[in-house]
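lol so apparently i was supposed to do this last week
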Amino acid sequence: MCGYSVTNFGHVFPPFVEAAQKQLTQLTHVTGELHSKQLELASSLLSFLGFEQGSHKVIFNSTGARAIESAWKVATAFRPGRVLAFRSGFHGRSLATTALQGESSLQIIDLTGKAVETRCQTEYPYCLRCPLEQQFPACEINCAKPLFHQLERYDKGIAAIIVEPMLGVGGYVAPPDDFFQKLRSVTQKLGILLIADEIQTGLGRCGSKLLSAAQGWEPDLIVLGKSLGGGIAPLSCVIGAAPLLSNLPPGSESETFAASPMACAVGLEVLQQLELGPWLERGRQLGSILRTRLQQLFNNRQSHKTIAITGIGPNAILEFGCDSPLVAASNLRDEQHSTWEATRLAREFATACFRNQLLVHLTGPDRTRVALLPPLNLADEDLEFAMQKIQESTPP
Ligand SMILES: Cc1ncc(COP(=O)(O)O)c(C=O)c1O
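anyway here it is w/ pyridoxal-5'-phosphate bound
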């Protein structure tokens, strides 16, 4: 585990510590004015993401939730209306972002952050437990059709949709790329803005600079956080086309501690390491080794026949009680039973890992998933150590 994508380079990664230490001897705080490290970081972010200088702008914040709020402000300044979010998504726990989650499947949120209407039963696509019991690609993403239908119907009142390219806190569920490509084309047609919350998925966590780009779609606003601060300083940002961000009235966004010189110095080093170091490739290789080894291990265990192993980039996700590719349940009673059993198996495995001193993440809407999220720079011997612990935590 690396702190929900905060310590993607592990703890006290020397280049980050050195960058922070150096900055601390030069300048620690500037209030209300731009400082050179902010400008350098904004410019580096644009180059890193392949945008031309001047074509895009950056707003800096400290936490992920605040950056989501900034994106929300930008979106509604450009196109007044409501913001849609997926029930199983997670965008923070500030007052406004808390409203982006809730009981309903898809919420329509007004500007005060209140969930005012629920019109649509679209869930975030979760193919391993498809509620329609269909299979991709034959399904043609039928689960998303109600959403597209409602967007067409209520487009005038909707400013933006916010979505994670893969659920983070919600269980590391990744829909097919086609879902996002379709969502992009429908929203583009209707003029609805698409906000990619890449606070967890960006900057190498999924083996790419941005997961949205790897999936083949382009958001209007990109939100980054967590690992941008290298596990040392809180740092987040929103990136979008200059004309879009320029709609935000001057002075409508600021934070005393956003993008401090030290946070920016570390952020610059994070981008440098991802751009010039072997880490994106290493992360992809690590995930592929991890998933293959887990598959071999579980294939040989009688007690864990029904397990699916997925994951993008360095991540490996174990889905328990899953008769891949569909859960072996055809009616509600069986499905409930199979979910309870899967939850029990996942909890047992995660607990055994903890007892063996390996930190894993029990997750998913029904806690049927266990996520292994190693840092990109995990050494081979640490991978062997983890595999040994996993082996000891798996019943015969
Ligand atoms: C995808 C995503 N968005 C937003 C946030 C909120 O970030 P923060 O806790 O820094 O406010 C999180 C935090 O876990 C997250 O995973």
